[in-house]
What does this fold into?
Amino acid sequence: MPVANTEVDVLIVGGGPVGLTARALLERWDVRTLLVEKRRELSPFPRSRLVNARSMEIYRQLGLAADIAAGAFAPEFGRVRFRDTLYDSDFATAAMVGVNAPIPESPVIGVVTSQDRLEPTLLAAADAPVRFGVELIDLTEGPESVLAVLVDRRSGEETRVRARYVVAADGANSTIRQRLGIGTTGPGAMAGFSTVVFDADLSRWCAEQPAGVYFTAHGSFAPLYPEGGWAWFGPTPEDTAQVDWPDLVSRALGPGAEVRAEVVRVQHWVMNAFVAERFRHGRILLAGDAAHAIPVFGGMGMNAGVADAHNLCWKLAGVLHGWAGPGVLDTYETERLPVAHLTLRQAVANTQLALHVLGRRREQLQAGGAAAPEQVELPWSDRYFAQLGLVFGVTYRSDAILGDGHVPPEPSDVGTDYVPTAEPGHRMPHLWLAPDRSTLDAFGEWFTLLTADPVPWQQQAAAPWPLRVETLAREHADVCGLPPQGALLIRPDGHVGARWGDRPSKDSTLREALATTTGSTSAR
It folds into this structure.
């Protein structure tokens, strides 16, 4: 291979929330990274609007949850409202469970916040180098590394970076995915939309009835920041060059609004719906929208990408630091690809349900509906809209999970219900170990052994794997269905990697479990 100008452990391509989260996580693992983003700065557009409770748990682990919540909307904005126009009464509304109020399943709640408010917090969370205005134009895989050719879009200067691995977080139109010839499955490009960011005083219709988004017959309206600002989302007009955007937004507000919108910026985008056929190509791994493009309704796309990063980064760190075998990276696709398909199906279902509500209202109006709208019965329950099963309840099945011979049945509707369980493959349930200290706070850049009987487990050798032993109170062990001498091995991403019902049967019990979970040959 040609000589490189720079060498790093991991090259991250894409400076959105997923790439920035991966950068912060890998820095915690002492992995050298370089992030490149072809835009000259962070995106000024709101884009994703919801950070769900699972993502907030990950950001709590990174020490960022409080800062993110401080810049977000209050919990009462965790709601959607359906109206004929923005100034009409609701004909339907639904709370975002897990966002609008605390829930017993988590130490945190999700927040409504705009992506352009989130990204600066993520950028400041790590010191690893970031190069804006730099685009990847070529990459060559070798047996030990990847050579990437980068170009500065302003100066035209080319540089070469050699990386042990590449994380492709470069969006739905991923250059890397296309260059690798990785196909996609799913509907693909569904429709073109425009986002208009504008300023206007809409408080008289919204201050007393807050929401994260208002769906109307003339497009959707969303408050952008607690201090002000709005966005309108709707189908892209045919001739965008001739559109009077302030007039379009003012008309979308409704004939009785008498509000003139001051347009700040406009963005055109395509709503995609697909999942990549593969998430790994040798030393290159796809994450976020490059791996799965999810329709916007329900706010699941970005959050699925954050979970991708959380799953992948500890595995990359293990391989790079030598306590995991390269094969553990295969489990990234094994674990996350099924979740991507589940998420896509749920998002498509959510979109259909929202269209159903709007369609029912149109039928009312065509039948001569009253000026004060009748309530449209929602085609979902609060539990359904919560989707806690998809947020907290996904189950991983892979070589990085050591089963105990008992495979619990899969939930029939993973999007609706979440039943906490400490079975292998599941996210470890949240339990309060102490005031303001959750079981989830015990996890980090290490494996965690949870047990009510720590002494025999502390006598087990764990090197070279990073491991901490955490004592569980008896009542917590009972909640987990764990016998008095049993133990749980928790992976760095918070999922249960192994479970024992009794004390270790031999001196190598723990080492063998860690070796299996990480694809290592150290204890085999």
